[in-house]
Specification:
- This protein folds into two domains: 6-192 and 369-389, Rossmann fold (3-Layer(aba) Sandwich); 213-366, Rossmann fold (3-Layer(aba) Sandwich).
- It has 14 helices and twelve strands.
- It has helices at residues 25-36, 51-58, 62-75, 77-88, 124-129, 131-135, 147-159, 169-179, 227-239, 273-285, 299-306, 336-347, 350-366, 370-389, and strands at residues 6-11, 38-42, 95-99, 115-119, 163-166, 186-188, 213-218, 244-249, 262-265, 288-290, 311-314, 327-330.
- The strands form two sheets. Strands 2-1-3-4-5-6 form a six-stranded parallel beta sheet, with helices on both faces. A six-stranded parallel beta sheet has the order 9-8-7-10-11-12, sandwiched between helices.
Length: 390
Protein backbone atom coordinates (compact mmCIF):
# COMPACT_ATOMS: atom_id res chain seq x y z
CA UNK A 1 0.00 0.00 0.00
CA UNK A 2 1.38 3.40 -0.98
CA UNK A 3 2.12 5.96 1.71
CA UNK A 4 -0.31 8.89 2.08
CA UNK A 5 0.77 12.15 0.48
CA UNK A 6 0.98 14.99 2.98
CA UNK A 7 0.08 18.61 2.40
CA UNK A 8 3.17 20.52 3.55
CA UNK A 9 3.81 24.24 3.99
CA UNK A 10 7.47 25.08 3.35
CA UNK A 11 9.02 27.99 5.24
CA UNK A 12 12.39 29.66 4.74
CA UNK A 13 13.66 33.24 4.55
CA UNK A 14 14.71 32.59 0.93
CA UNK A 15 12.85 30.73 -1.78
CA UNK A 16 13.95 27.11 -2.24
CA UNK A 17 13.61 27.66 -5.98
CA UNK A 18 16.85 29.67 -5.80
CA UNK A 19 19.59 27.08 -6.48
CA UNK A 20 22.34 29.18 -4.89
CA UNK A 21 21.06 30.18 -1.44
CA UNK A 22 22.32 28.13 1.49
CA UNK A 23 24.71 26.35 -0.89
CA UNK A 24 21.74 24.66 -2.54
CA UNK A 25 20.61 22.86 0.63
CA UNK A 26 17.32 24.76 0.75
CA UNK A 27 16.46 23.67 -2.78
CA UNK A 28 17.42 20.04 -2.20
CA UNK A 29 15.31 19.76 0.96
CA UNK A 30 12.31 21.20 -0.86
CA UNK A 31 12.72 18.85 -3.84
CA UNK A 32 13.25 15.80 -1.59
CA UNK A 33 10.02 16.58 0.27
CA UNK A 34 8.18 16.94 -3.05
CA UNK A 35 9.46 13.53 -4.17
CA UNK A 36 8.87 11.60 -0.98
CA UNK A 37 6.47 13.39 1.37
CA UNK A 38 3.67 15.04 -0.57
CA UNK A 39 2.45 18.31 -2.00
CA UNK A 40 4.70 21.17 -0.87
CA UNK A 41 3.62 24.82 -0.92
CA UNK A 42 6.26 27.52 -0.53
CA UNK A 43 5.16 30.16 1.93
CA UNK A 44 5.93 33.83 1.17
CA UNK A 45 9.18 35.22 2.56
CA UNK A 46 7.66 38.63 3.36
CA UNK A 47 7.34 40.24 6.79
CA UNK A 48 3.79 41.47 6.44
CA UNK A 49 3.44 45.00 7.82
CA UNK A 50 7.24 45.17 8.23
CA UNK A 51 8.02 44.22 4.62
CA UNK A 52 9.68 47.55 3.80
CA UNK A 53 12.15 46.97 6.62
CA UNK A 54 12.96 43.46 5.36
CA UNK A 55 13.74 44.84 1.92
CA UNK A 56 15.96 47.54 3.41
CA UNK A 57 17.94 44.92 5.35
CA UNK A 58 18.20 42.71 2.25
CA UNK A 59 19.87 45.55 0.34
CA UNK A 60 22.77 45.65 2.80
CA UNK A 61 26.01 43.73 2.09
CA UNK A 62 25.79 40.05 3.02
CA UNK A 63 28.33 40.48 5.83
CA UNK A 64 25.93 42.88 7.54
CA UNK A 65 22.49 41.64 6.51
CA UNK A 66 22.76 38.04 7.74
CA UNK A 67 22.85 38.60 11.52
CA UNK A 68 20.80 41.78 11.27
CA UNK A 69 18.05 39.93 9.39
CA UNK A 70 17.88 37.16 12.00
CA UNK A 71 17.86 39.52 14.95
CA UNK A 72 15.38 41.93 13.39
CA UNK A 73 12.98 39.12 12.59
CA UNK A 74 13.23 37.82 16.16
CA UNK A 75 12.41 41.33 17.38
CA UNK A 76 9.49 41.67 14.95
CA UNK A 77 8.19 38.14 15.55
CA UNK A 78 4.61 39.21 16.43
CA UNK A 79 4.31 41.18 13.19
CA UNK A 80 5.89 38.56 10.90
CA UNK A 81 4.11 35.65 12.59
CA UNK A 82 0.75 37.37 12.11
CA UNK A 83 1.29 37.44 8.34
CA UNK A 84 2.42 33.80 8.27
CA UNK A 85 -0.53 32.68 10.35
CA UNK A 86 -2.89 34.39 7.91
CA UNK A 87 -1.15 32.62 5.02
CA UNK A 88 -1.47 29.22 6.71
CA UNK A 89 -5.18 29.90 7.25
CA UNK A 90 -5.74 30.09 3.49
CA UNK A 91 -5.37 26.31 3.18
CA UNK A 92 -5.25 23.19 5.31
CA UNK A 93 -1.77 21.76 5.85
CA UNK A 94 -0.68 18.57 7.59
CA UNK A 95 2.77 19.88 8.40
CA UNK A 96 4.88 23.02 8.48
CA UNK A 97 8.51 22.43 7.51
CA UNK A 98 11.06 25.19 8.16
CA UNK A 99 14.55 25.08 6.64
CA UNK A 100 17.46 27.08 8.10
CA UNK A 101 15.40 30.12 9.15
CA UNK A 102 14.71 29.39 12.81
CA UNK A 103 13.81 33.06 13.28
CA UNK A 104 10.92 32.60 10.85
CA UNK A 105 9.23 30.27 13.36
CA UNK A 106 9.54 32.74 16.22
CA UNK A 107 6.17 33.66 17.70
CA UNK A 108 4.27 31.55 15.17
CA UNK A 109 1.25 29.68 16.54
CA UNK A 110 -0.33 27.59 13.74
CA UNK A 111 -4.03 28.42 13.23
CA UNK A 112 -4.98 24.73 13.53
CA UNK A 113 -3.23 21.49 14.60
CA UNK A 114 -0.29 20.55 12.37
CA UNK A 115 3.11 18.93 12.77
CA UNK A 116 5.95 21.46 12.88
CA UNK A 117 9.48 20.53 11.80
CA UNK A 118 12.83 22.24 11.42
CA UNK A 119 16.21 21.45 9.85
CA UNK A 120 19.50 23.33 9.80
CA UNK A 121 23.20 22.60 10.12
CA UNK A 122 23.59 25.02 13.06
CA UNK A 123 21.90 27.57 15.26
CA UNK A 124 23.43 30.98 15.85
CA UNK A 125 24.30 30.17 19.45
CA UNK A 126 25.76 26.71 18.85
CA UNK A 127 27.83 28.04 15.95
CA UNK A 128 29.07 31.01 17.98
CA UNK A 129 30.07 28.98 21.04
CA UNK A 130 31.70 26.12 19.10
CA UNK A 131 35.27 25.88 17.90
CA UNK A 132 33.92 26.82 14.48
CA UNK A 133 32.61 30.14 15.76
CA UNK A 134 35.82 30.74 17.64
CA UNK A 135 37.69 30.34 14.37
CA UNK A 136 35.39 32.91 12.71
CA UNK A 137 34.81 35.60 15.37
CA UNK A 138 32.31 38.41 14.93
CA UNK A 139 33.62 41.40 12.99
CA UNK A 140 31.22 43.86 14.57
CA UNK A 141 32.00 45.55 17.91
CA UNK A 142 29.22 45.13 20.45
CA UNK A 143 27.70 42.25 18.51
CA UNK A 144 27.81 39.97 21.56
CA UNK A 145 25.43 42.10 23.63
CA UNK A 146 22.36 40.39 22.16
CA UNK A 147 23.66 36.82 22.48
CA UNK A 148 21.63 35.88 25.55
CA UNK A 149 18.50 37.44 24.05
CA UNK A 150 18.97 35.48 20.79
CA UNK A 151 19.60 32.22 22.64
CA UNK A 152 16.43 32.61 24.69
CA UNK A 153 14.40 32.97 21.52
CA UNK A 154 16.11 30.00 19.89
CA UNK A 155 15.29 27.89 22.94
CA UNK A 156 11.65 28.92 22.89
CA UNK A 157 11.25 28.11 19.19
CA UNK A 158 13.08 24.77 19.32
CA UNK A 159 11.21 23.54 22.39
CA UNK A 160 7.94 24.40 20.69
CA UNK A 161 8.74 22.54 17.44
CA UNK A 162 7.60 18.94 17.10
CA UNK A 163 10.45 17.46 15.06
CA UNK A 164 14.04 18.65 14.67
CA UNK A 165 16.01 17.04 11.85
CA UNK A 166 19.73 17.63 12.46
CA UNK A 167 22.24 16.52 9.78
CA UNK A 168 24.87 15.48 12.36
CA UNK A 169 25.20 13.93 15.80
CA UNK A 170 27.43 16.84 16.79
CA UNK A 171 24.58 19.29 16.28
CA UNK A 172 21.92 17.06 17.82
CA UNK A 173 23.97 16.55 20.98
CA UNK A 174 24.83 20.24 21.22
CA UNK A 175 21.19 21.28 20.72
CA UNK A 176 19.88 18.84 23.31
CA UNK A 177 22.44 19.97 25.86
CA UNK A 178 22.07 23.69 25.12
CA UNK A 179 18.30 24.00 24.85
CA UNK A 180 16.96 21.16 27.00
CA UNK A 181 14.98 19.47 24.24
CA UNK A 182 12.50 16.64 24.76
CA UNK A 183 13.45 13.00 24.33
CA UNK A 184 12.67 11.86 20.79
CA UNK A 185 12.27 15.41 19.48
CA UNK A 186 15.74 15.53 17.90
CA UNK A 187 16.65 13.18 15.06
CA UNK A 188 19.89 12.76 13.12
CA UNK A 189 19.20 12.66 9.37
CA UNK A 190 22.31 13.39 7.24
CA UNK A 191 21.99 15.78 4.34
CA UNK A 192 22.97 14.77 0.82
CA UNK A 193 25.26 15.80 -2.00
CA UNK A 194 24.51 18.95 -3.96
CA UNK A 195 24.26 17.10 -7.24
CA UNK A 196 21.25 16.95 -9.56
CA UNK A 197 22.45 13.69 -11.09
CA UNK A 198 25.06 11.69 -9.14
CA UNK A 199 27.66 9.87 -11.25
CA UNK A 200 26.53 6.36 -12.13
CA UNK A 201 29.86 4.75 -12.99
CA UNK A 202 32.41 5.39 -10.24
CA UNK A 203 35.90 3.96 -10.61
CA UNK A 204 38.70 5.00 -8.24
CA UNK A 205 41.66 6.43 -10.18
CA UNK A 206 44.86 4.36 -10.02
CA UNK A 207 47.27 5.53 -7.32
CA UNK A 208 51.00 4.87 -6.98
CA UNK A 209 54.30 6.73 -6.89
CA UNK A 210 54.69 6.74 -10.67
CA UNK A 211 51.47 8.65 -11.37
CA UNK A 212 50.35 12.21 -10.71
CA UNK A 213 48.63 12.56 -7.32
CA UNK A 214 45.54 14.75 -7.62
CA UNK A 215 44.28 16.72 -4.61
CA UNK A 216 41.08 18.78 -4.60
CA UNK A 217 39.65 21.65 -2.53
CA UNK A 218 36.15 23.13 -2.96
CA UNK A 219 34.73 26.29 -1.43
CA UNK A 220 34.17 30.03 -1.67
CA UNK A 221 36.65 31.07 1.01
CA UNK A 222 40.22 29.88 0.53
CA UNK A 223 41.32 30.32 4.14
CA UNK A 224 38.08 29.18 5.78
CA UNK A 225 38.19 25.94 3.77
CA UNK A 226 41.75 25.23 4.87
CA UNK A 227 43.37 26.19 1.58
CA UNK A 228 46.77 27.11 3.06
CA UNK A 229 47.07 23.67 4.67
CA UNK A 230 46.02 21.93 1.45
CA UNK A 231 48.63 23.91 -0.51
CA UNK A 232 51.42 23.15 1.96
CA UNK A 233 50.37 19.49 1.99
CA UNK A 234 50.85 19.41 -1.77
CA UNK A 235 54.30 21.01 -1.47
CA UNK A 236 55.39 18.52 1.19
CA UNK A 237 54.29 15.61 -0.97
CA UNK A 238 56.22 17.01 -3.91
CA UNK A 239 59.28 17.38 -1.69
CA UNK A 240 58.93 13.67 -0.91
CA UNK A 241 59.11 12.80 -4.60
CA UNK A 242 55.41 12.57 -5.43
CA UNK A 243 53.96 14.45 -8.41
CA UNK A 244 51.23 16.04 -6.28
CA UNK A 245 48.88 18.60 -7.83
CA UNK A 246 46.06 20.67 -6.37
CA UNK A 247 42.81 21.68 -8.08
CA UNK A 248 40.74 24.45 -6.50
CA UNK A 249 37.05 25.01 -7.23
CA UNK A 250 35.07 28.02 -6.11
CA UNK A 251 37.66 30.56 -4.97
CA UNK A 252 40.90 32.35 -5.90
CA UNK A 253 43.95 31.43 -3.80
CA UNK A 254 46.37 34.32 -3.16
CA UNK A 255 49.55 34.48 -5.22
CA UNK A 256 51.56 32.98 -2.34
CA UNK A 257 49.48 29.81 -2.67
CA UNK A 258 49.64 29.43 -6.44
CA UNK A 259 52.22 27.82 -8.69
CA UNK A 260 52.38 25.64 -11.80
CA UNK A 261 50.97 22.69 -9.85
CA UNK A 262 47.77 24.51 -8.85
CA UNK A 263 44.75 24.60 -11.18
CA UNK A 264 41.99 27.06 -10.30
CA UNK A 265 38.33 27.13 -11.35
CA UNK A 266 37.14 30.30 -9.57
CA UNK A 267 33.48 29.59 -10.18
CA UNK A 268 31.56 26.62 -11.55
CA UNK A 269 27.80 26.96 -11.92
CA UNK A 270 25.98 23.66 -11.44
CA UNK A 271 23.10 24.94 -13.58
CA UNK A 272 25.43 25.24 -16.60
CA UNK A 273 26.05 21.88 -18.36
CA UNK A 274 29.64 22.71 -19.35
CA UNK A 275 30.48 23.67 -15.78
CA UNK A 276 28.87 20.49 -14.47
CA UNK A 277 31.13 18.44 -16.75
CA UNK A 278 34.19 20.28 -15.47
CA UNK A 279 33.04 19.78 -11.87
CA UNK A 280 32.51 16.04 -12.38
CA UNK A 281 35.83 15.68 -14.19
CA UNK A 282 37.73 17.33 -11.33
CA UNK A 283 36.08 15.07 -8.75
CA UNK A 284 36.53 11.91 -10.85
CA UNK A 285 40.27 12.52 -11.41
CA UNK A 286 41.08 13.46 -7.82
CA UNK A 287 42.51 11.03 -5.30
CA UNK A 288 41.61 13.03 -2.17
CA UNK A 289 39.45 15.96 -1.20
CA UNK A 290 41.79 17.79 1.19
CA UNK A 291 39.63 20.26 3.08
CA UNK A 292 40.77 21.01 6.66
CA UNK A 293 37.99 23.55 7.18
CA UNK A 294 36.07 24.81 10.19
CA UNK A 295 32.42 24.37 9.22
CA UNK A 296 29.26 22.92 10.68
CA UNK A 297 28.61 20.45 7.84
CA UNK A 298 29.97 20.68 4.28
CA UNK A 299 28.18 19.52 1.13
CA UNK A 300 31.52 19.05 -0.63
CA UNK A 301 32.20 15.99 1.53
CA UNK A 302 28.91 14.44 0.39
CA UNK A 303 29.74 15.23 -3.23
CA UNK A 304 33.16 13.66 -2.79
CA UNK A 305 31.55 10.47 -1.48
CA UNK A 306 29.20 10.44 -4.47
CA UNK A 307 32.29 10.31 -6.71
CA UNK A 308 34.02 7.67 -4.59
CA UNK A 309 36.52 10.31 -3.52
CA UNK A 310 37.91 9.95 0.04
CA UNK A 311 37.81 13.15 2.11
CA UNK A 312 40.50 14.35 4.48
CA UNK A 313 39.37 17.02 6.92
CA UNK A 314 39.49 18.11 10.55
CA UNK A 315 37.26 16.51 13.17
CA UNK A 316 35.37 19.75 13.71
CA UNK A 317 31.62 20.39 13.88
CA UNK A 318 29.33 18.00 12.06
CA UNK A 319 31.42 17.24 8.98
CA UNK A 320 29.95 14.12 7.30
CA UNK A 321 33.24 12.21 7.24
CA UNK A 322 33.66 8.93 9.12
CA UNK A 323 37.11 7.44 9.60
CA UNK A 324 37.62 4.50 7.32
CA UNK A 325 34.17 4.89 5.75
CA UNK A 326 34.52 7.87 3.41
CA UNK A 327 37.85 9.34 4.50
CA UNK A 328 39.46 10.57 7.70
CA UNK A 329 38.73 13.41 10.11
CA UNK A 330 42.02 14.38 11.74
CA UNK A 331 42.22 15.97 15.21
CA UNK A 332 41.92 19.79 15.32
CA UNK A 333 45.34 21.35 15.04
CA UNK A 334 46.58 18.80 12.51
CA UNK A 335 48.79 20.40 9.89
CA UNK A 336 50.29 19.74 6.46
CA UNK A 337 52.69 17.08 7.74
CA UNK A 338 49.82 15.07 9.22
CA UNK A 339 47.82 15.22 5.99
CA UNK A 340 50.86 14.48 3.83
CA UNK A 341 51.82 11.45 5.93
CA UNK A 342 48.31 10.01 5.72
CA UNK A 343 48.12 10.55 1.95
CA UNK A 344 51.55 8.98 1.41
CA UNK A 345 50.50 5.88 3.36
CA UNK A 346 47.65 5.35 0.88
CA UNK A 347 49.91 5.97 -2.12
CA UNK A 348 52.02 3.07 -0.89
CA UNK A 349 48.95 0.87 -0.36
CA UNK A 350 46.87 1.06 -3.57
CA UNK A 351 44.59 -1.80 -2.57
CA UNK A 352 43.66 -0.17 0.71
CA UNK A 353 43.06 3.11 -1.10
CA UNK A 354 40.72 1.38 -3.56
CA UNK A 355 38.74 -0.11 -0.67
CA UNK A 356 38.40 3.32 0.95
CA UNK A 357 37.22 4.88 -2.31
CA UNK A 358 34.58 2.19 -2.78
CA UNK A 359 33.48 2.59 0.84
CA UNK A 360 33.08 6.33 0.25
CA UNK A 361 30.66 5.66 -2.59
CA UNK A 362 28.76 3.20 -0.38
CA UNK A 363 28.48 5.89 2.30
CA UNK A 364 26.87 8.17 -0.27
CA UNK A 365 24.44 5.52 -1.48
CA UNK A 366 23.37 4.54 2.05
CA UNK A 367 23.20 7.90 3.82
CA UNK A 368 24.64 11.00 2.13
CA UNK A 369 21.97 11.45 -0.53
CA UNK A 370 18.75 13.48 -0.59
CA UNK A 371 16.47 10.55 -1.36
CA UNK A 372 17.55 8.86 1.88
CA UNK A 373 16.95 12.16 3.70
CA UNK A 374 13.54 12.67 2.09
CA UNK A 375 12.35 9.15 2.82
CA UNK A 376 13.38 9.35 6.48
CA UNK A 377 11.89 12.80 7.04
CA UNK A 378 8.67 11.83 5.27
CA UNK A 379 8.31 8.76 7.48
CA UNK A 380 8.61 10.83 10.66
CA UNK A 381 6.27 13.51 9.36
CA UNK A 382 3.62 10.92 8.52
CA UNK A 383 3.97 9.34 11.95
CA UNK A 384 3.58 12.75 13.56
CA UNK A 385 0.50 13.56 11.52
CA UNK A 386 -1.03 10.15 12.31
CA UNK A 387 -0.46 10.71 16.03
CA UNK A 388 -2.03 14.15 15.80
CA UNK A 389 -5.20 12.69 14.28
CA UNK A 390 -5.72 9.99 16.87
Amino acid sequence: MSEPRLNIAYLCDFSPLDPYMYSGGNRHMYEALCRHAGEVTILPQGWGAAERLRRAVARLPDSMSLRLRWRTQFALAPVVARALRAELSRSRYDALFCAYALHSLSGLAPPYPMVTAFSSDATQTIYRTSEIGQAHPSRFPGGRRLDAWVEARERRVLRGTDLLFWPSRWLRDAAEARYGLRVGQSLVVPWGAGLSVPPADVRPPPIDRDRPLELLLVGRDWRAKGGPIAFETMRLLRARGLDARLTVIGCEPPDAHRDDCVTVHPQLDKTVPADVKTFDRCFSRAHFLVQPSYESYGFAFCEASAHGLPSLCLDVGGVPVRDGANGHALPPGSGPRDFAQLIESYVDSPGIYGSLARAARAEFEEALNWDAWGQTVARHLRAGVAALRR
